[in-house]
Design brief:
Elements: H1 4-7, H2 21-40, E1 42-47, E2 58-62, H3 69-81, E3 86-91, H4 98-107, E4 109-112, H5 119-131, E5 133-136, H6 153-162, E6 165-172, H7 174-177, E7 189-195, H8 211-234
Parallel strand pairs: 1-7, 2-5, 2-6, 3-4, 3-5
Antiparallel strand pairs: 6-7
Helix pairs in contact: 5-6, 6-8
């Protein structure tokens, strides 16, 4: 298991193909294990995979309703696009669960202390976002009622500096599968992951690097997530796996 100091090492931030044979096999095995649950214990439906670019800087900006979201979205991306690392800054609390910690770390998550301005972590987020795939929850925390909350302006600044392709993403059903406070996931609950068309943010990149620009960017991103969420609610997931 990687220690906290090891996670901060540059050796941790390597692409899937650059990792050792044992580590790659663990990623494959853990992905297969999560896949067993998705296939046989919940009714997973995936939509909009054509909106995820194969290469380049990509940000999957998603709503956040359950701890399961941090596993589900990377699982889906690897299932659709092949084995790879989906980077994801995540709150420290998720890494206190031993098995979950090991999976998250191997899949590209790294702990972030909320409420602290860690310049090294911020630079790393921008660097990873500009070259690879990253998952972020712009709300910053889980929604207790499933309603989309306001986005964090700092995410808008990350986007401004990294200029990735921003793919709005909506997860539904995970709050019923793995509700807050639960120790084990429920079985048989339908789950859906839906990806939308990339958000057009190019008009902002020639503007000054300011609070106003970051706020405008994150507002556009949140509006795209909200619109996708509304469409998802009007078309409930079918009771079959993709």
């Amino acid at each position: 298991m990687a220690s906290d100091s090891a996670v901060q090492s540059s050796k941790y931030f390597r692409a899937y193909a650059e990792r050792g044979w044992i580590e790659r096999q663990w990623i494959r095995f853990s992905h297969w294990t999560v896949g067993l649950y998705c296939r046989f214990c919940c009714r997973l439906r995936i939509e909009g995979e054509e909106h995820i670019p194969a290469q380049g800087g990509v940000l999957l900006a998603s709503n956040h309703i359950s701890m399961l979201d941090a596993l589900l979205i990377p699982y889906v991306v690897m299932r659709l696009k092949g084995m790879q690392i989906v980077w994801s800054p995540a709150k420290e609390e998720l890494f206190r669960i031993p098995v979950l910690r090991q999976i998250l770390l191997s899949w590209g998550s790294f702990p972030v202390r909320r409420g602290r301005n860690d310049l090294r972590t911020m630079r790393r987020i921008v660097s990873l976002m500009s070259t690879g795939k990253m998952m972020l929850f712009p709300e910053g925390t889980r929604s207790h009622d499933g309603q989309l909350q306001a986005g964090n302006r700092m995410v808008g600044r990350f986007i401004y500096r990294a200029q990735p392709v921003v793919v709005p993403t909506v997860v539904s059903g995970t709050n019923h599968t793995f509700p807050q406070g639960a120790w084990l996931p429920r079985v048989g609950v339908p789950i859906r992951v839906r990806f939308g068309p990339p958000v057009d943010l190019k008009r902002y990149y020639d503007q000054p690097d300011s609070k106003q620009t970051s706020e405008a960017i994150i507002q556009d991103v949140m509006q795209s997530i909200a619109a996708l969420q509304k469409r998802s609610a009007s078309h409930p997931a079918a009771d079959s796996n993709r």
